[in-house]
UniProtKB/TrEMBL annotation:
Matches recorded under PROSITE patterns: PROKAR_LIPOPROTEIN
Species the sequence originates in: Henriciella mobilis
InterPro entries: Beta_helix (IPR039448), Para_beta_helix_rpt-2 (IPR022441), PbH1 (IPR006626), Pectin_lyas_fold (IPR012334), Pectin_lyase_fold/virulence (IPR011050), SO_2930-like_dom (IPR022442)
Protein name in UniProt: Right handed beta helix domain-containing protein
Disordered: region residues: 20-40
Lineage of producing organism: Bacteria, Pseudomonadati, Pseudomonadota, Alphaproteobacteria, Hyphomonadales
Segments forming domain Right handed beta helix: 107-231
One Pfam entry name: Beta_helix
Biased composition (Low complexity): 28-37
Length: 417
């Protein structure tokens, strides 16, 4: 399954000479237009050092243009100047290769507002590919972040990783090989992830502890889990809600789970299309599901012990409608594999754990709304509360008697129009 990826990577490498200087062996300095402070970086010796210098000395509103070629990077890059655009010659045309990275950090860290990252590839970082923190109105566009070779828990955790930000756009981005999530947006508000490809990651796309997100037009394939919408305890921002997942292709997510032990996504069963965990107001609509061996859609409570009194571990106000479903549930993995014998050995496309309370708390009306044809199978495992036990399961195929909550408003980002 990696042959196509390796071939594409080999073709991309042919665009440069493969040495530290890229396509040309010159010592040409960056050329700067004094009128607008834009800079075009030339290939040559000390490329990485000259690039970092430009990032440090950039003026707000300037553009740094990267040349075509493959450039070896030994240290991570950072940008903390507002309003800067970093633009390459295209995905697979400008390649920043971190296979010789000396540290374990991200390839590029952005801690500034109004930044645009576009038209380049980052490969083989020791840590995350590109991380942005407290970076409002950031744009990730026409980028590739990848780890080559077979899935490996030593790969960086996240490919594209905006966190603690407002107005986040991720579009036409490709991520491969992340040992946690390919495209991850966490603790943020007003988010669009669209027209992107996430493949061969543990989780393809993940929206975590965030509000007002739209995930559409993407392809999530060959991951362990396709698209995750989570809310976790003990984080600076909690109360994830209002995420719409629609018009995506969520296919063949049967790659083994290669997350490091102890990672929250290490519990994602291989073969899962969408997981909604402990989140509020989530729509899953008009997606195309196919050949996910465990389940197409899993609705679940947070399963681990926690002490955060403000945390709600239950999923609630979930609406599932208008999707199309191919083959699934024929080889359930993880804990779901233990429940499959109760229902004949396979699982239907939509599975809800049926948890409606935590510990000794009273039952909660979690309002799981499913409006799919009767031919689309559903099961409520009827677990009631955690810790989960197969012996406590009371499975039923009856759909919940729930009301459709008000449709989520469309997300628009003025800085990206």
């Amino acid at each position: 399954m990696r042959t196509m990826i390796m071939a594409a990577a080999a073709a991309a490498l042919l665009t440069g000479c493969g040495g530290p200087g890229g396509t040309e062996d010159t010592d040409a300095p960056a050329s700067t237009d004094a009128a607008d402070t834009n800079a075009s970086l030339e290939p040559g010796d000390d490329f990485a050092a000259r690039l970092q210098t430009l990032l440090i000395e950039a003026e707000p509103g300037s553009t740094i243009t990267l040349p075509r070629g493959t450039f070896m990077m030994t240290d991570g890059l950072s940008l903390d100047v507002d309003g800067v655009t970093i633009s390459g010659a295209g995905q697979g045309e400008t390649i920043l290769d971190f296979s010789g990275q000396r540290g374990s950090g991200e390839g590029l860290l952005v801690t500034a507002d109004d930044v645009t990252l576009e038209n380049f590839t980052i490969q083989e970082t020791k840590g995350d590919g590109i991380k942005s923190k407290d970076a409002d109105r950031i744009i990730y566009r026409d980028l590739t972040v990848e780890w080559l070779g077979e899935p490996d828990e030593e790969n960086g955790a996240y490919g594209v990783y905006p966190v603690e930000s407002t107005d986040v756009l991720v579009e036409r981005v490709t991520v491969r090989g992340a040992s946690d999530a390919g495209i991850y947006v966490g603790q943020s508000d007003r988010i669009i992830v669209r027209d992107s490809l996430a493949e061969y990651n543990v989780a393809g796309i993940e929206i975590e502890n965030s509000t007002n997100a739209a995930v559409y037009g993407n392809t999530a394939r060959h991951n362990a889990g396709g698209i995750l919408v989570f809310d976790l305890p003990d984080l600076p921002v909690m109360g994830g809600n209002s995420t719409a997942v629609y018009d995506n292709d969520i296919l063949d997510n049967n790659t083994r789970n290669f997350a490091p032990p102890g990672n929250i996504v290490a519990g994602v069963p291989s073969g899962t299309g969408v997981i909604i965990m402990a989140n509020d107001k989530v729509e899953v609509s008009n997606n195309r599901f196919g050949d996910n061996q465990t389940v197409q859609i899993l609705i679940t409570a947070y399963t681990e012990p926690f002490t955060d009194e403000a945390y709600n571990p239950l999923p609630r106000n979930v609406a599932i409608f208008g999707n199309t479903y191919g083959r699934s549930g024929y080889n359930p993995k993880g804990i779901l594999g233990s429940f499959a014998p109760l229902v004949g050995g396979s699982l239907p496309p939509i599975v809800w754990d049926g948890v409606t309370r935590w510990g000794d708390e009273t039952d909660t009306d979690v309002n799981i709304f499913i409006d799919e044809p009767d031919t689309v199978g559903f099961i409520n495992l009827g677990l009631g509360t955690y810790p989960i036990s197969v012996e406590n399961a009371a499975p039923t195929m009856d759909r919940p008697d729930a009301d459709r909550f008000d449709p989520l408003p469309a997300i628009t980002l003025e800085h990206a129009e």
